[in-house]
Amino acid sequence: MHLQTERLQLREFTLNDCDFLIALLNSEGWLKFIGERNVRTIDQAKKYLKDRIIKSYKDFGFGFYLVELKDSKIPIGMCGLVKRDFLKHLDLGFAFLSQYEGYGYGFEASKEVIQFAEEELSHKKLLAITDPENQKSIGLLIKLSFKFDQLINPDKKDLNLYSLETI
User: pLDDT tens digits for 26-72?
Assistant: First the structure.
C-alpha cells in the first residue's frame, strides 16, 4: 500500500525502519501522550514491527504507515488506521517527530488516510482517541472535522473519543 500527497509519501513499514521507529516511540511527545512501549533496541523494534504494525497489514489490510517527505525520503512520523478491541469502528492515529510538527504534515497525511478509509475500505465512520491533555492532537482532530463524543477509560487511562462521519 502506498499513498501520497503533494509533500508526503505514506508507505507500509518494513523491518528496515527500526532506527526511525525507535526514535519515534521514544520521542518526548510519544512518551508523554501515548505511552512507553519498551522499544529501545533493533531487536525490540523488529519484534514490535512484526507483532503489531506488519501483522495489522496481514490481518486487516491496513495499519499504521510510515510518513516520509516525498522529495528526500526522510521519515517524519506515522499515520494510519488501527482496529482496537475496545472500539466499534476503525481508529485514526498519528504521531510525528517534534521537529516536523507545525508544518501541516499531520493534517495532510491524515486527510489522505481518511480518504483511503472511505474510498478503498468503504468505512463511513472513523474514530480517534487522544489524551485529554494533548492539545495539538485535539486541534488536528477538530481541523479534520472530528467531533468529540465522550471520555472513555480503556486500561484505566482517560482518553477523549472523537468520531468522523466520512459521508
Answer: 999 999 999 899 999 999 999 999 999 999 999 999 999 999 999 99
Query: Are the C-beta atoms of 64 and 56 separated by less than 8 Å?
Result: yes
Contact 129, 159 (CB under 8 A): yes
d(Cα 40, Cα 85) in Å, to the nearest integer? 26
Domains of the chain by range and CATH? 2-165 (3.40.630.30)
Q: Can you tell me the distance from the alpha carbon of 14 to that of 138, in angstroms, rounded to the nearest whole number?
A: 29
Q: Which residue in 64, 31, 28, 32 sits closest to 48, CA to CA?
A: 64
User: What pTM does this model have?
Assistant: 0.94
